[in-house]
Amino acid sequence: MHVLGRLFLGAFALLLAVPAGAAILVLALLVDPTANAWLTGGALAGVDMALSDLSAGLPPEGLVILIAGLAQALFVLLFVPPALVGFAGEIFSRRGFVWYGAGGGILTAALPWLARGAARSEASPGLLAAEARLTLILFVVGASAGLVYWLVAGRSAGFSRADQHAAGA
């Protein structure tokens, strides 16, 4: 019965942590001038692509592919890190806010680096600064989602000592 209750609490915590991370991501992208310029340029390019396809009489396949890719990237960035950190916290009975905050932040910030698979060998200083800025933004996003998860479910994660003694008796 305890496991079922923990599953529901974890699902509820994820239900709150994902929108919190999304809100922080949107706020950070709007506040950061470099990310704001990149986001505006990308949005304008996407609108231009969609309108040119529609005016040429083509179906908006490019826009659908863009939206599907964006949805997949947001799922990986916003759902997977708090879910993995929360699951590991339950398994190892981790209850500290540092586990959830730092774990979620580090995992979220590392995802683009892991997806790329290798470090850039010939990168300009401007590109390295932009990647460092993006890494910091993603760390804050993951840490905020992890802390929301901790507030809801992480403080009571795993089995307490009383539960362990009762199960062993």
What's the short story on this structure?
With 169 residues, this protein is an all-alpha fold. The protein has 7 helices and no strands. The chain is 82% helix and 0% strand.
What does this structure look like?
The chain is 82% helix and 0% strand. By secondary structure, the chain is mostly helical. The two termini are 17 Å apart. The mean pLDDT is 82.
Query: Quick check: average pLDDT?
Result: 82
Number of strands: 0
The global form is globular
Tell me roughly what share of residues is in helical segments: over 70%
Total of DSSP H or I helical runs spanning 4+ residues:
7
Q: Separation of termini?
A: 17 Å
N-to-C SSE string, H for helix and E for strand: HHHHHHH
Question: Any low-confidence stretches, pLDDT <50, length ≥5?
Answer: none
Features of the shown structure:
single chain, 169 residues, mainly alpha, 7 helices, globular
List the helices and strands and how they pair.
Blueprint: H1 2-31, H2 33-55, H3 61-78, H4 80-91, H5 97-116, H6 125-152, H7 161-168
Helix pairs in contact: 1-2, 1-4, 1-6, 4-5, 4-6, 5-6
